[in-house]
Amino acid sequence: MKTELAFKFRQVDIKINIFTFAIIPAMYLTGYFETFIAAFISIMLHELGHIALACLLKVKVHAVRIIPVGLNAVIDEMPDTGKQLMVYLGGPFTNILLSVAAYLFGLCFLPGSKVANLIASTNIYLAVFNLMPVLPLDGGRILKTAMADKVGFLPAGRYAKKISLIFAAFIFLLGIAQLYINSYNFSIFFISIYIIISLRWDETEAALMNVKSIIYRRSRLVRKGVYQARDLVVLKNVMLSEIIKNMDFDRFHIIHVLDDDLKLVKTFTEQEIIDALFENTTDITFDELIKKSESNKQG
Asked: Transmembrane ranges (predicted)?
């Protein structure tokens, strides 16, 4: 059974989850209609903030999904760290603007308005929540992107994941305390579970994005003619697959192989490592690769 209606609009895939049409009357019947609408619209505008920044910065938006809890956008990864951070901040910044606008509107034109207060509080909560340094929230992605410039893309992902797990554990304990105070309120507890489950998906996504970036980096270098580079030093007994984990998102890499006395044995380009990984097993070491390349030259 298909759960989504799909169509294209200006080369962007639009997908609507059919349960979205059922959640609105359900909220109306349970008496949570106003709260749900405020949250739903706020989440949609949050994602539209990301999309608007992406469009302004000429970053491709691949797909938009409308789901029962709002809207989700799939935006292309950017080699430019500044642009990437701006797109991540677009959502929370939109919520902050909406919160301030709703508060001022209520203060000036509708004093004591429950609707204005609801919109203001919902948006400020969304902004603060999404800026938490926890993956897959915007704050976690900002933290990972900022660290990637210093330690590499995948190592940054691992550090961000550890920080996220610490936050998730803290939120989990708060959830238990909340249940002790109010046995019917599971909200904080569910947030911690959501973060832990989402981390598993984010880890796979990070690996796929790094591989995609490395594969397509050659075409960007050929097109531009000039590209930023980074040197990596590795011992000859290290496997080729390990060096991939330490590559940056937006750098072309030169790999210098050292022997046990830390003397230079050979230098490889990133493309040579990629070619070797395609031609050999992933557990091949640099020492084995050097011996194999030398025997091929002699042959």
From this structure: 85-112, 124-143, 163-180
